[in-house]
From TrEMBL:
PROSITE patterns: G_PROTEIN_RECEP_F1_1, G_PROTEIN_RECEP_F1_2. GO terms for biological process: calcium-mediated signaling; cellular defense response; immune response; negative regulation of apoptotic process; neutrophil activation; neutrophil chemotaxis; phospholipase C-activating G protein-coupled receptor signaling pathway; positive regulation of cell population proliferation. InterPro entries: CCR1-9-like, Chemokine_CXCR2, Chemokine_CXCR_1/2, GPCR_Rhodpsn, GPCR_Rhodpsn_7TM. This is C-X-C chemokine receptor type 2. It holds the Pfam family 7tm_1. Interacts with IL8. Interacts with GNAI2. The gene is Cxcr2. It is a multi-pass membrane protein. PANTHER family: C-X-C CHEMOKINE RECEPTOR TYPE 2 (PTHR10489:SF689), CELL ADHESION MOLECULE (PTHR10489). One of its GO terms (molecular function) is C-C chemokine receptor activity. The keyword Phosphoprotein applies. The chain crosses the membrane at residues 31-64, 76-95, 120-139, 151-173, 208-229, 241-263.
Length: 350
């Protein structure tokens, strides 16, 4: 009877690194893996796809329609909506893979994994850029770097370039792996050194693509909040609510996944003891937090709609232009007041 490959079995359950080699006398863990109901997961993916497609398209429409008066922050939020929209387009494929495994071949495996990584890194880098812009505009009251629109374009191009570089391992190394024991899976395969290189490729991007931007945001927003409260800038407090909400939602969606990924890395490197119970707990947590991270791509437009006065006004203005709402109704809506920005005469947020 052919030996059961526990390396492949565990790897088919998640996209983390492979297990160490199993000695011949090793008694494998008895798996009691009970995943989230597959129909519930597929329903979540479809709803997130539809909400993201609609919401992020509207955000891009509102910003581009009012591009003459858009602020530097709006330019960054436009890039954030683009990243979320690109990732949302892959969700139907991820949903379909939940039924019979990855049956779409290696090329689509590479592309969808690449877009997922690009979405993650571009999102946090955009939020880091916004935090620096707000820090310069409010703490130092300067218009030096981002006052000129062409400089902002270069910042955005640099952000996308770095996101693409950090996401290259997914594009180069992901492939469809066929296992005789379970459904085909989409994950990295680097031969005999898969475990070692996965750890390296996990630690480096997480450090430069998550931890450092997170530290930048904490530093910038810490000083920004202190300056706002010390100066009693009531209007700017209100204008910053959208940005703080966007950052908070990003952390709520992505931080749990990264913490589980860190725990998995520590266990695979032997820094914390690996047990059967702990292995199963991390597998459960990996699946649940990955679904939570997918939710992020549809939440920002909801924040703009409920908190962003400028977004609501811009959207109603478009509807009024095409006769979908009356101009009298638009007049009843208070036009958002513009507060200081590093871009000069424009509002700070959506």
């Amino acid at each position: 009877m052919e030996d059961f490959n526990w390396d492949d079995y565990f790897d088919d359950f998640n996209y983390s690194s492979g297990l160490p080699s199993i000695p011949p006398d090793f008694a494998p863990c008895t798996l009691y893996y009970i995943g989230i109901n597959i129909h519930v997961v597929i329903l979540i993916y479809v709803l997130v796809f539809l909400l993201s497609l609609l919401g992020n398209s509207l955000v891009m429409l509102v910003i581009l329609y009012n591009r003459v008066n858009c602020s530097v922050t709006d330019v960054y939020l436009l890039n954030l909506a683009m990243a979320d929209l690109l990732f949302a387009l892959t969700l139907p494929i991820w949903a379909a893979s939940r039924t019979n495994g990855w049956t779409f071949g290696t090329p689509l495996c590479k592309v969808t994994s690449f877009l997922k990584e690009v979405n993650f890194y571009s999102s946090i880098l955009v939020l880091a850029c916004i935090s620096v812009d707000r820090y310069l505009a409010i703490v130092h009251a300067t218009r030096t770097l981002t006052q000129k629109r062409h400089l902002v374009k270069f910042v955005c191009l640099g952000m996308w370039g770095l996101s693409l570089i950090l996401s290259l391992p997914a594009l180069l190394l992901r492939k469809t792996v066929y296992s005789p024991n379970y459904y085909p899976a989409c994950y990295e395969d680097m031969g005999e050194h898969t475990t070692k290189w996965r750890l390296v490729l996990r630690v480096l991007p997480q450090t430069f693509g998550f931890l450092l931007p997170l530290l930048v945001m904490l530093f910038c927003y810490g000083f920004t909040i202190r300056t706002l409260f010390n100066a009693h800038m009531g209007q700017k407090h209100r204008a910053m609510r959208v940005i703080f909400a966007v950052v908070l939602v990003f952390l709520l969606c992505w931080l749990p996944y990264n913490l589980v990924l860190l725990a998995d890395t520590l266990m695979r490197t032997g820094m914390i003891e690996e047990t059967c119970e702990r292995r199963n707990d991390i597998d459960h947590a990996m699946e649940a937090t990955e679904i939570l991270s997918f939710l992020h791509c549809c939440l920002n437009p909801i924040l703009y709609a409920f908190i962003g006065q400028k977004f609501r006004y811009g959207f109603l203005k478009i509807l009024a232009t095409y006769g979908l709402v009356s101009k009298e109704f638009l007049a009843k809506e208070s036009k958002p007041s513009y507060v200081g920005s590093s871009s000069g005469n424009t509002s700070t947020t959506l």
